[in-house]
Give the backbone structure.
Amino acid sequence: MKPENNNSLKRLRNSYRLVVMNDDTYEEVVTFRLSRLSVYVGLSTAFVLLVGLTIALISFSPLKYYIPGYGTRESRSALQALKIRTDSLEQALQYKEQYIDGVKKVLTGNTPSQLDTIPAVIPRTETTNE
């Protein structure tokens, strides 16, 4: 395993020359001495910088408000107040529907045979007739 690892490390460090030439006159415009390792490091650095700049651009500019789920503190508190109000309105509506259903049952005569009052037992008082 050591020779393969050493061989791949040598390939990373082999130096190459990149020449940019003028196509018409074959004059060398720019020459670069590169290795595979320097190309990997350069591309990785460029990628990290682009990602960092993109994140910074989004987080420190008004672009962040276009991200779904992100909003200002005021809008979040307003949304929470609306949720609470909606829940209370739904509960009030449910109570009113139950009340209307009860009134409909009473008016149509579909009430259960069970009485909803307890009969009161009134003791008899003796009256004297004179």
Observations:
- The radius of gyration is 43 Å.
